[in-house]
Each structure stands twice: as structure tokens, then as C-alpha cells.
Amino acid sequence: DDEIQKLEADIVSLRNQQQRIYRQIDRYRSLLAPIRKLPPEVLGHIFCLICTENSAATTEIDCPAVHLSHVCAGWRDLARTTPSLWSCISIDLRVYSQQDPFRVESMLTTCLALSNPSPIILHLTMSEVDIADFI
């Protein structure tokens, strides 16, 4: 029985070691991913194509640049230093009352701070009518 318990403990130890090795392999594999070979300028251009608008136009706030900045430290630095990703803001005043005003304010503050020196493009809508139609 003692020998069986020792062998079972060895099996558990080996399985734990195997899991650690698999995690290391996954980390190393991500370092070799082809996207890591793209120059920051190219990746920044791709980001600009994806992040066309930061929106509070539905009941959810959607900031694609924020999503990209959560991928890894490199993408976060690139997103935060690319002002054009943050310069286009869309707010639907009709659904604004359904949103947490602090989240909308946080989105606006972040976009304004990170868009500098790019000009801000602010698109406001109300109900089904575009406010720009009245200006």
C-alpha cells in the first residue's frame, strides 16, 4: 500500500509538472505568433481601420480601442499612443438616460485625453433624427 501511495503521489507530481510545461509552451507559442512580426506602424494602421468610432449610441458603451488595449501590453501602448483611435465619438442622447452617466463620462474623458492632438469628431443623435439635420 505504501508503494502504491508513493507512486500515486509521483503521478500527481508529474501531472502538475506536465501542466506547468504546457503553460510554458503556450506562452512561448504566443511569442512566435506572426502578428508579433508586424511593425507597429502597420499594426497601428490596422487598428485605425478597426476602430472607426467610440460609441455610446446603444445601451452599451463600445470603445474598440479599449478592447484592443486589453490584449497585451504592446497593444495597450500602441492604442494609447495612436490619437486617431480615440477621436471619433458617437452618442445617442435618446439612450443616454439608460446608461450609467459615470461610464459615459469616463468614456468621454478617456477619448478626449487620448485623442490629443487629433481633432474630435462628435456625432450626436436623438431619437430617430440626426441632430446634424437641424444645424
TrEMBL record:
Residues 36-91 form the F-box domain. Pfam families: F-box-like. InterPro entries: F-box-like_dom_sf (IPR036047), F-box_dom (IPR001810). This is F-box domain-containing protein. It comes from Dendrothele bispora (strain CBS 962.96).
